[in-house]
From TrEMBL:
The protein's name: Protein GrpE
Complex formation: Homodimer.
Region (Disordered): 1-49
Encoding gene per record: grpE
CDD domains per UniProt: GrpE (cd00446)
Main location as per UniProt: cytoplasm
HAMAP family, per database record: GrpE
Location(s), subcellular: Cytoplasm
Gene source species: Albibacterium profundi
Amino acid sequence: MEDKNKEEHLDNKNITDELESVNEARKHAKNVADSEESSDDTADSPEDTLKKELAEANDKYVRLYAEFDNFKRRSSKERIEFLQSAGKDVIGDLLPVIDDFDRALKAAENTDNIDSVREGILLISQKLKKTLELKGLKPMESINQPFDADLHEAVTKIPAPSDDLKGKVIDEVEKGYFLNDKVLRYAKVVVGS
């Protein structure tokens, strides 16, 4: 019983202490407000202070909005420039191949030797493929592989010549390609059934 009385006395004392600190804070706030009112006219009123803070916030908002708008315009312009020049290096690397084709066509007009023309075209084809491989292009191996809808586009199904070719690619109508390990073009294939 004595413990309960002590606890109640302590609780009452704590509450009394808190009330006194709240009253002191009120008195202090009232004194500050009174001193602001009694000070000369050079001090800002709370309304003026709020108006200044609002004006500053609006100014910051307008500046931030303008900066963001400029950022959007700048990044949009950079994106357009990037897209326009994205293939520049690839096209630059293909120009020698085009020059080789022009020379081969010119040489084919003046020659009767079809084997030398065929050999020249084969060399140009190899050069073109090598240039594209250096840029990340890789041909897809499809024939005799199991049909994969993620890589192949089935053009048609035909009866498989043997049981081990069922569900596998028998022929390739159009070759598929990877560009940096992502499918650039799906292979159009004939599947055995």
